[in-house]
């Protein structure tokens, strides 16, 4: 690895999370959480004069506290940030801050700043090499070791102003919407102690968003000046936040943590939700069904309660019983792709007359809206295989592997599909596109094929 590349990686490691890391950690796909976060985010994007459909929003399966913009117009939020927040306004404040990084062009300027910041680091490396050549080995090693610090310090000069701008713009967006502006200041103040911790002990968010005292004071002043710092939170958003936080805790935390946070004496909806999910994860399906049935009785028009009931029954190998709650969820929220996929999965498992065809239809419908959903493509390949549509099953498998970055298998399955599909048909062209895109002869595909070796 060249010295220049090494320094760029050292600098960027402190401030960026790359797509490879996101894939390694995994994304959380959940119809309810995605809908809630979109309900909060889209108005902010519009206030920032961005097109909501052009901005991706991703929840990363990581308990650490972090949020960032990467890979263009894509906001990434760690599950841990939602779980650590006290209210919806804190999460919304962070989303508004990250929105500015897109709207204000910081994803471009930071890449440029990283290149500029690497220059003094390269000088330090050069001096270190010269010192070693001259016989001063210890001094040379110290200069080389400090090279990343020089780069990082220079990078801070470029990013400090951007962080301040993002704080100010976040409050401006929320003010324009008439929403509570206190969240981001409250969030910063809650974690102000992070500044005194060593770099290694800080949450990832506060490695890339340092909390200097002046910054915290300025953000608080801007929130107060908006006149909305003390505005009561919207009751709908309060309930939404409590439910998605409970859901994440139920799925990601241990049963002991769940029952400590939501004891059996707590009959609130968030508490029952968390306990139902935790019980399902512990294979205590009877308790899980008891809790979710109580929630459905309280709110019979909540599609996510029926979805969870279907999940509990599927987890208990009762696909036949799971179809009805999945159908009810789809009836209440007909356009949601994830609900269609869950419904199709249950039909594929049951395999009664008409089930496979219904599953294929639901999956194709979901993929029309989410063409990069690898899991849906995998399920569609199963539906095709069960109908002896071998070439289409191979094509669907190729799509599934392509969308998770498994280029060797995507290439292999697309090549097999091409041998059986009718030439120049839409499916043949689709397979041809995948094979061409994953061709090992293309230099840009080298990294994807190297993983196989």
Question: Could you explain the architecture of this structure?
Answer:
With 453 residues, the protein is mainly alpha-helical. The chain has 4 domains: 3-225, no CATH class; 253-297, no CATH class; 301-384, Tetratricopeptide repeat domain (Serine Threonine Protein Phosphatase 5, Tetratricopeptide repeat), CATH 1.25.40; 388-453. It contains 24 helices and 4 strands. It has helices at residues 3-15, 19-25, 31-47, 79-84, 88-103, 106-133, 137-145, 147-177, 182-190, 204-208, 213-225, 235-252, 255-261, 269-281, 285-298, 303-315, 319-332, 337-350, 355-369, 374-386, 390-402, 407-420, 426-437, 446-450; strands spanning 27-28, 56-60, 67-69, 74-78. A 4-stranded mixed beta sheet has the order 1-2-4-3. Helix 6 runs antiparallel to helix 7 and helix 13 (255-261) runs antiparallel to helix 14. The longest helix has 31 residues, at 147-177. The chain is globular and about 65 Å long. The model is unreliable at 1-24, 109-135 and 137-158 (pLDDT under 50).
Low-confidence region ranges: 1-24, 109-135, 137-158
Fraction in beta strands: under 5%
Rg over CA atoms = 25 Å
Tally of helical segments: 24
Strands ordered across the widest β-sheet: 1-2-4-3
Query: Which percent bin holds the helix content?
Result: over 70%
- The shape, in one word, is globular
Order of helices and strands: HHEHEEEHHHHHHHHHHHHHHHHHHHHH
Instruction: Give the class from helix and strand content and strand pairing.
Output: mainly alpha
């Amino acid at each position: 690895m060249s010295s220049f590349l090494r320094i760029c990686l050292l600098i960027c490691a402190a401030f960026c999370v790359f797509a490879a890391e996101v894939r390694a950690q995994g994304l959380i796909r959940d119809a309810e959480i995605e809908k809630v976060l979109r309900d909060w985010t889209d108005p902010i994007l519009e206030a920032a004069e961005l097109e909501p459909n052009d901005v991706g929003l991703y929840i990363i399966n990581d308990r650490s506290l972090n949020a960032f913009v990467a890979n263009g117009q894509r906001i990434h939020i760690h599950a841990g940030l939602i779980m650590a927040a006290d209210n919806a306004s804190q999460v919304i404040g962070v989303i508004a801050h990250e929105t500015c990084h897109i709207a204000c062009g910081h994803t471009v300027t930071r890449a440029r700043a990283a290149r500029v910041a690497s220059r003094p680091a390269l000088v330090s490396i050069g001096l270190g090499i010269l010192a070693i050549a001259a016989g001063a080995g210890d001094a040379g090693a110290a200069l080389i070791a400090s090279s990343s610090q020089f780069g990082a310090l220079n990078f801070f000069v470029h990013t400090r102003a951007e962080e301040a701008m993002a704080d100010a713009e976040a409050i401006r967006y929320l003010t324009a919407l008439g929403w509570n502006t206190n969240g981001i200041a409250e969030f910063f103040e809650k974690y102000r102690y992070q500044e005194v911790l060593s770099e290694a002990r800080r949450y990832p968010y506060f490695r890339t968003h340092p909390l200097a005292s002046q910054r915290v004071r300025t953000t608080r002043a801007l929130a107060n000046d908006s006149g909305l710092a003390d505005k009561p939170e919207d009751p709908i958003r309060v309930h939404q936040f409590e439910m998605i936080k409970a859901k994440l805790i139920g799925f990601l935390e241990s049963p002991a943590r769940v029952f400590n946070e939501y004891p059996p004496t707590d009959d609130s909806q968030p508490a029952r939700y968390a306990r139902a999910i935790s019980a399902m994860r512990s294979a205590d399906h009877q308790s899980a069904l008891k809790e979710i049935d109580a929630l459905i009785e309280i709110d019979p028009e909540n599609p996510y309660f029926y979805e969870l009931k279907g999940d509990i029954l599927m987890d208990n190998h009762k696909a036949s019983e799971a179809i009805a709650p999945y159908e009810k969820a789809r009836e209440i929220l007909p356009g949601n792709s994830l609900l269609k996929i869950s419904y199709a999965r249950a039909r594929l498992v049951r395999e009664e007359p008409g089930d496979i065809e219904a599953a294929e239809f639901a999956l194709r419908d979901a993929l029309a809206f989410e063409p990069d959903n690898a899991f849906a493509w995998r399920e569609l390949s199963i539906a095709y295989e069960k109908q002896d549509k071998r070439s289409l099953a191979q094509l669907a498998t190729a799509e599934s592997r392509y969308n998770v970055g498994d280029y060797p298998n995507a290439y292999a399955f697309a090549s097999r599909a091409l041998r059986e599909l009718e030439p120049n048909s839409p499916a043949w062209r689709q397979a041809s596109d995948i094979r061409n895109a994953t061709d090992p002869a293309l230099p840009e595909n080298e990294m994807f094929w190297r993983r196989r070796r």
